[in-house]
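Can you give me the bound-state structure? Components:
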Amino acid sequence: MPELFRNYINGEWVESGAVFENRNPARTDEVVGLFARGAAGDMVCAAAAAEAAFPSWAAMNPPARGAYLYRAADILEKRFEQIAAEMTREEGKTLPESKGEVRRSINIFRYFAGEGSRLAGLQTPSERERVHTFSIRKPLGVAGLITPWNFPIAIPAWKIAPALVCGNTVVLKPASAAPLCAWRMVEALVEAGIPKGVVNFVAGPGGELGSALLSAPPLKAVSFTGSCAIGNWLHQEASKRRIRIQLEMGGKNPAIILSDADLNTAVETTVNGAFFATGQRCTATSRAIVEEGIYDRFVEALVERTRRLKVGDGLQPGIDVGPAIDEAQLETVLRYIETGKREGARLAQGGRRLTEGSYAGGYFVEPTIFTDVTEEMTIAREEIFGPVLSVMRARDYEDAVRMANDTPFGLSASIQTSNISRAFDYIYRAETGLVMVNLPSAGIEYQVPFGGTKDSSFGPKEQGPAALEFYTDYKTVYLKY
Ligand code: NAP
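Here's the bound-state model for the whole set.
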């Protein structure tokens, strides 16, 4: 019988009657865990518990709040191997990728724990004699955190750690497809002694729980990462009650390859950006925009390198690309591949679901490259969220920049070039929140601001010092002495 993981509300691990399964996408006969299926009433209780816990948590000095995060980080560190393996089993990414994510989450906890000793406000001169002006940061209250399945611990970590250290209390709603790693993170906080009600965890169906959370009177802020459709709905609901909101959503991230790029680097970074983590990263490269002069050589080397990628169960050594998260995502990917073929793109590599032998029990698809993709094609415009790359031809640098920016999304962009002036020119002209030079479009660090522009994001950035802007308000003091 698989283990049952309960919700955590008001300092108690609670069942909700019904349960749902968390299955391994590489071996669908394996149930990784059973989760209590939270309902609207659980969300209401969780928000009320967070509200009750807020005054004393907010009154605690910030370094003391940070100490809980340091302790939780140490607990996660002790379970590093276990959580990484669980991540691969619930999400499908390879074990080295999972280890990288758990490591990053521990670092995130420690970084924001240290923020407890800084949490700097502003000190600015007054225009008046013998008046001292300064602004201190105040927490907001109850923050709702809604997270997706593709980074099942890093995204919960980069929301909960700044929320807590700033003095907010939280209700975390993890993705139903991969809730275990977020549960482990909450378990670590509980073992670290986090006071009752400060952290609440409610797993279950997004629609029901999301509505209940958004209509819970104590809610003051919501931070969401996921699809544009849900993010836009949340934004409408939140604005009715002036709930502060932060949205991180989809992307259609370009990688510009200029003729002066180092060919090997361009190929490696593109393969990494497009196919690692099964292309299921919001920052994944989904369009390679290649300058005429290097196009044929690049495509040939890219296809050759991609053919050598090993697809399989991410727990096995040597695997580069794991499965899609679930059947629905697999179907979406296969549908886009069919659309690409129908609209006239040239299938240069992959394109099939893998079902033979050990692939039979999982949602595996070949890393897929379409070439001769034109700008109006669906696969050049819509987020696919799988291992599918569209290669497009640009006449020159200007044409490449125009194509790269011609999308409603604006999360990440990469440029491969040895020309420093071009690199800087692009840094300033890219309509994205992240620009990577001679690096993959994906692969971010926690100590710098993260987020996009245009339809990809809304509200203050996450991570780094920018995270404090979302989770605090300024209170300004004028003091005559
Ligand atoms: P999703 O379907 O939007 O789900 C995200 C979260 O929202 C899940 O916890 C989901 O719960 C919940 N949810 C569903 N319906 C809801 C509702 N009506 N109200 C409130 N919450 C609701 O997205 P996903 O499929 O998990 O993730 C893939 C998407 O996330 C992609 O578009 C990707 O680009 C984006 N993403 C963006 C970033 C970024 O930082 N920009 C990072 C990672 C992923 P259930 O799981 O129970 O449905």
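A couple of observations. The pocket of NAP is lined by residues 146-151, 173, 175-177, 205-207, 210, 225-227, 230, 233-234, 248-251, 282, 383, 385, 411, 456 (CB under 6 Å). Residues 4-249+456-480 form a domain with the Aldehyde Dehydrogenase; Chain A, domain 1 fold (CATH 3.40.605.10).
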